[in-house]
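Researcher: Quick sanity check before group meeting.
Model: Go ahead. Protein one:
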Amino acid sequence: RRKSLRSRKANLRWAKERGEGAATSHKLKRDQLRKKKQQRLRREEEESKKWLEHKEFKRAKAHFEKVAKAHFDRREKEGAGKEKEKEKRKEKKEKKQEEKETENEKKQEEK
């Protein structure tokens, strides 16, 4: 198992104090660069993941709005149709009522 960067840094500091390790400072530099690269890659990966999630969310939202609008429009149409049917029914009732009244009047006149 590899030692952590922190412990390696500490070991290098102690080696410097003892007057050793030009090669080890090179290793430390290399490790630091590797760590930076890993951090950069991880950050880029997270950003791309966020971007994909955002795009997916926007797509889903647009789809939902489209479906909701279609549903609403259909309901509106159905509602308008129902209103027309109601009006027709009312008119029929009124006509029947008028016919009954006229028949009643005729009967009254005959009597």
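Researcher: Fine. The other one?
Model: Protein two, sequence then structure:
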Amino acid sequence: APPAAAASGGGEAPPPAPEAPPGHSAPPPNSTPQAYVSAYSTFYQEWKVQSQQQSQLASSLPPGTGRDEAERRAQWAEYYADQSSRCAHYYNTVVSRGSVPQQQQQQLVPILHY
């Protein structure tokens, strides 16, 4: 099962960057907040599609390993969609506030998972 989503903190640090969906890559560290909003919005949409596809696959399979694996993939895709949404909303807030003070720009770099 995917890890439980962490409670949203009220700090200024961005949420952890989500895994990039297949065929996509994380935005470069020097990207603008608008680029992060665009990338993470796309990630969200892709992960939601993956989640729906895997859920449909799971419901079409008989109980067993194949069904369990499809359900597991659907849960992870949903988790990554949630992370993507949190990141997109965070950077959208940054964009809506206008220019970012120089000392806060370093906080805009997402945490990359290896």
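Researcher: One line on it for the slide.
Model: The radius of gyration is 16 Å.
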